[in-house]
Amino acid sequence: MANILDYLDWRGDLTLIERGFNEVDNLLMAELCFLDFAGIVPPGFDVPVPLPEAMARYDALRADATMGVLVPEQIPQLGRKMAASARFSELRLCGYVSRIDDETQTQFAALSALLPDGTAYIAFRGTDDTIVGWKEDFNLAFLPVVPAQAMAAQYLAAAAAQMPQKALRIGGHSKGGNLAVYSAVFCDEAVQNQIMYVYNNDGPGFRTSLLPLEQHKRIAGRIVTILPESSVVGMLLEHEEPYTIIKSNQVSVLQHDPYSWEVMGPNFVPMQSITADSQFVNQTIKAWIASMDTQERNRLVDALFGLLGTGG
Question: CA–CA separation, 191 vs 117, rounded Å?
Answer without folding.
Answer: 19
